[in-house]
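Need Ribonuclease HI's 3D structure for a figure. Predict it.
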Amino acid sequence: MPVHECDVDEARDRLREAGVEIADGNTDHEQWRASTDGATAVAYDEKVVVQGVRPQEIEAVLRDEGGRTHVYFDGACRGNPGPGAVGWVLVNSDGIVADGGERIGRTTNNRAEYQALIHALEVARDFGFDRVDVRGDSELIVKQVRGEWDTNNPELRELRVRTRELLDGFDSWTLEHVPREINDRADELANEALDDV
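Structure prediction for Ribonuclease HI:
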């Protein structure tokens, strides 16, 4: 549950300007509440706590700056094709901004890797970051997206185009292949999502 140490009156004004509905707090300790589809922000003395399944919109407004994030992604597949899942982690100078994993249905390993990358980039975009340094342990995906390798598979070509569209939406980006040990948290989240039945 993200906690923002801030001036809660300024935070309320920023959320209101962004079109987020503001209401009175539910207890004596709550100064106000702000709700969007999938998230609620609750203001206390000098801090705002964000909860819910999709906190990105509120988080982006409260952060009120672009900034840089490191994005880690990994796709997992049991069988090829088989049940698939994605995992992602966003990290900045304050630590982990967001992470998660989810099942994506029957797929191949390469499609799962692309879907993980796409999902991670969408989360980074929704959080309002303007610069991303992306890291993944799939050499194939990294080299295809950077244009060093091509593919004859039309589905992978389409996923590569979507990935480049997302990357080009940032002010700057890098994409680097890293060893699995460096990407272990994203890998762990994808596999945990596969294990959850």
